[in-house]
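Table S2 (text version). Query chain:
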Amino acid sequence: MRHPLVAGNWKMHGTRASVAELIEGLSRQALPAGVEVAVFPSCLHIAQVVRGLDGKRVAVGAQDCAVESAPGALTGEVAASQLQDAGCSLVLVGHSERRLILGDSDADVTRKFAAAQSCGLTPVLCVGETLEQREAEQTLEVVGRQLAEVIDALGIDAFAKAVVAYEPVWAIGTGLTASPEQAQQVHAAIRAQLAGQDAQVAAGVKILYGGSVKAANAAELFGMPDIDGGLVGGASLNADEFGAICRAAGN
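Corresponding structure-token output:
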């Protein structure tokens, strides 16, 4: 049985002071027992968050990792093994901002996915289409290709210890949200694509929705059969709002 997962991507936000406030706010939240919760702070704040949430039911992840799993001569990058050593248990790979702004290719994303798993981290594979691609009715083609890159390179079994996050690029940080029906259509297609390789793996994979998830729309989104929680952006920077989203997943 799949348990819901609500993950907060803090992106390039936070100072030591504001992160301390957010940790304190998260510590006060009543989080539902059946929901897994994770936060993804900036790399600078991982150690602070790991310490601050010690003993809480909140996992800590990183927003990206290097294509190489081991430390080495790759200035400015952080290896998956270093993230694991710092206390992370998950890592985002292929977020649209990495793909579209920072140039991560499908091959890069696949290497990061593999690097994460080789160090015991759970990769959260982000997939999604731009507004132009949606308007051209290419959503399922684009998402299917992004998913297939990893399946073809690493095999379907790699998804037995991974999470997928569908994030329509046009809904990230814009206030726009895919309707529950639009999101469900893509989530169902992702699960069907995985099931075409291994039905058991597909049934167990958590598929999260990301794209302006808020407390006001979370319950309706999470009520869809193939939506297993959310990858939350801006709303995760407010502890009360994030707590409300987690409770919506518990219902």
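Notes on Table S2: The beta strands are 5-9, 36-40, 59-62, 90-93, 122-127, 163-166, 206-209, 229-232. The mean pLDDT is 96.
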